[in-house]
Specification:
The protein is mainly α. 49% of the residues lie in helices and 6% in strands. The protein has a single domain, classed as 434 Repressor (Amino-terminal Domain).
Length: 69
């Protein structure tokens, strides 16, 4: 799964640690999501959606190569 997390976080000038604190997860979890090494749980995806005030579909989307669809 691809995501726009890094771009959205940068637009708000939040560090990974700040976003992690707001989302209730570790900085390492945010890093892993941003780099595509980890897909967030559905509850975490909803939490991130609320934090960025965007629908989940505007943050996360399927990999163009068909991976994790």
């Amino acid at each position: 799964m691809k995501n726009r997390l890094r771009v959205l976080r940068a637009e708000r000038e939040w560090s990974q640690a700040e976003l992690a604190d707001r989302a209730g997860v570790s900085r390492q979890a945010i890093n892993a999501i941003e780099t595509g090494k980890y897909d967030p749980s559905l509850p975490l995806a909803f939490k991130l959606s609320r934090l960025f005030e965007l629908p989940i579909e505007e943050i996360f989307f399927p990999d163009e190569n068909g991976k994790n669809e």
